[in-house]
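User: I'm putting together a small comparison set for a docking exercise, and I want a reference complex before I start. The sequence is below, and the ligand is iron/sulfur cluster. Could you produce the 3D structure with the ligand included, as structure tokens?
Assistant: Of course. I'll restate your input first, then give the structure tokens for the complex.
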Amino acid sequence: MVAACRRPRRHHEGVYCGAHQQRWREVRREDPKLSEARWRRTEAPVSCAGEVSFVGLAPLVVAEILLGLQQRCRLAGTVTKDASLRAFCNELRAMQAKRLADYRGLDAHSDQVFRAMVHALMTESSRAMASPETEVGKDVWDLAVFGHNGTLDFSGISQRWLRETAKRWAADDLPRRRVRAGRRSSVGLNVRHHIGCLVRLSQALRRRPDRGEVPPALGRADMEAFLHRLSYLESTGKASGDARIRACREVRAVLNRARAMGLTRPSGPAAGLGEDFAIHRDDIPETPQRGEPGRDLPTEILRQLCTHLPAIASTEMRTGVELAIDTGRRPEEICDLPYDCLARDDDGSPVLVYSNFKANRLDRRLPISEATATLISAQQQRVRARYPHTPIRDLKLLPTDRRNPDGARAITGFSLAFHHRKWVDNIPELRAADGAEFDKRLVVLYAYRHSYAQRHADAGVPIDVLRQLMDHSKLDTTKQYYHVGEARRREAVDRVAAMQFDRHGNRVWRDAKALLDSEHARRAVGEVAVPYGVCAEPTNVKAGGGACPYRFRCAGCDHFRTDVSYLPDLHAYLDDLLRTRERLRAATDIDDWARTDATPSTQEITRIRRLINRVSDGLDQLTAEERTHIDTAIATMRRHRAVMLGMPRTRPVLPDLRAGATA
Ligand code: SF4
């Protein structure tokens, strides 16, 4: 007679099994008025190991549990304990729940395993029965239904027109965002922030007598009140300057988009909203210009960090941090590296194959050192030993320890950042070059990316090459990753200008220390770069270097100037001339007139050789200290040079952070 019990009655005249006979006696003793019919419907079955009884549960509840279990097992690979599920079913039966959403007993449980199971079953089952069409009608959206993470809560917007406008904007915006299978993205965060800004606008509008419910009644004064409110919040420290700027931008974006979508038309939710209820570009405060220093870590700090790498207990996390230091990739790019991310170029040089998810550029190839390649190979061997049966295409280089039976799930950026922070906090104090304690809060995963850029910029890697290494589409973005102060740049120009030569190798004497501001400006506008110096020919300068009247015969041109910072380029150019001459002499498949025309002239070779000797002599005459200063100045100057013109180039070696392990 107990709905959930399948055991035989104890006595042929009785109606219960032995256990339920006993239980009924006890509950009736405690509560003589207890309804026996209800007790029969709600009483739990006698527990049996390995068995969970759904008998007595509503059919919809059973379907929801099965669906939730299936998703939890398939998608997350999670093991569900039968004891936890049995306890949950007993509670659902006891409360005679019609659907899982009716369950209200979670607060009484402190067991994390039980809570996680209930949460997963309820979430997965509700998602399986939801669709974007049903979700947009709610005030709280589960973004998983739209392919993203988290929830979107519109309930903080009290004005019906604004809430509907926000929903329509979000429904319009979400499909245009990128999704990544099985990975978290920041889309939910971004859209949530827009809605948060609208909640602030809603709060400001509630101060009106009509509580901001009537769109046609709103105007410029109401928007000004909102802007004043943001200003007040910043002045009291309740909102940062960035938050204020972002709030202005995001409210402006939503309102502009709403108008473009026709939501202010007579039939729209914001019908009658005046054109003056808007945020103009001038209303947005100026973004503060941040000066130096950048976010890169000094070389000595990186060296100290590298000596403490063995303190990271997890192999995957340690490898992730090492790869971040070596390659300068973003944390999510490191975490998502596939097992076969190591490749070789035609000449055998190792390259890292990764995906730039931020810009949606897949299978990028980054040159790496042999030390980094060895690090990756060792990790590959560990992963293969751990997952010998998983196909390679499914494996991750850094598989997570949690719910990962076949190695197809990678560690997350969040967990890598968590372990990295824990490690940095536990290592001894970091000391800067002057002995001062270095602020550990500045040691974040993203700082390695800035350090990578700065390290290569300091080593003289031209900015156009650095842009490719960083996989940026714009040079301006790359420039934000490394810094050379104006003072340092001016000092470098002063030093190097003192060692400037004309085409004959004659020193162009100038009192470099007294270079006027106008001279610095002239260097920026009155010269264009040529392969191993600068050109001051006015027509060519005006044309940005593309209109040389003498077919780029710079070594024989009076408009040409060079300095010590071009010495490596001059050497490379001379080598190139000599190589070309020898190659043409040996060639048999070319007519004599063509050979003569293509062969570099002896005069040009002699001129370049003399130029190199003169410039080198100038360096030899310097004291050791002057030489050090000039070397530093040359490195600074070369860092800002982006002329290509097909010339071969040399560059100094990168600093050695840990023996043989630089990228
Ligand atoms: S040849 Fe003379 S004018 Fe032409 S690019 Fe060289 S320096 Fe300028």
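The two ends are 74 Å apart (CA to CA). Residues 509-518, 642-653 have pLDDT under 50 and may be disordered.
User: Thanks, that's exactly what I needed.
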